[in-house]
Write a structure and sequence with these properties.
Blueprint: H1 2-14, H2 18-25, E1 35-37, E2 57-59, E3 79-81, E4 101-103, E5 126-128, H3 146-153, E6 159-160, E7 163-164, H4 170-187, E8 188-189, E9 192-193, H5 216-254
Parallel strand pairs: 1-2, 2-3, 3-4, 4-5, 5-6
Antiparallel strand pairs: 6-7, 8-9
Length: 261
Amino acid sequence: MDCKREKEQDAECEKVTALLLKSRTGEFDLESILFLKLRVLGIHDLGCIGECVNLERLDLFGNNVTNLGPLSSLRLLSVLNLSSNRISNIEPLRSCENLQILNLAGNVISSTESLHCLVSLKKLENIRLRDNTYNYSNPVCRSASYRAVVLEMFPNIKVLDGERVVGRGSELYQLCKDIDDTIKAGSYKNGQLIEHPDCKPWVEDGYWEIKRSNNAIIEEAYKQFNDVLHECRLLNNRATHVISQTERSMSLKKQPKQYAI
């Protein structure tokens, strides 16, 4: 009997049902579900997930999903994790007009043409087709021109495969990447740094020394500031002295009078 129940539960997990969604979220109404995490459940059929029309974040990592059709009705979806599935066709995502972050690493997307359906998604700014941390990828990533083609196809994206390509931090990332590439190209030999006698310092000697301006206005401002600072210190010392005297006199008044008998 127990084995039969376990088999029924496994079968339910293979397909997304209203019962599964309600038990996972605690919501009675599917339209009330805003965030949904269904990781590593062996799901291959998304079932009624399209009825969660107000869903904003969906995590389907580590399943066996192949058909994304039920996701076409999720127009409010902004974050979608489909990594580690068996997806080759992402056409249904065309209607997810609010999509901003999309993770497709670890699937079977074979060409950049398969990504054309996402071009109309104006809010899309973060796409991942490859994840080196977990060794997830797609066949399309094997192409030497993959990165250049994707960046040309999506000129507004800020992050590709976890690497910031525009915006704050992108220049630093590119600099670090260039340094790594230089090292790999042969800056080290037998574990030793190769010396280049023609190399010059980035800046001239004395570049980092603080130099005071000869401008008379600035010099006068320095002088006035120092004078004001000196007066403030004197006033602070006087105030401290007055406060100390006042506290001493008040403590003497509070002491009880003693009479000698």
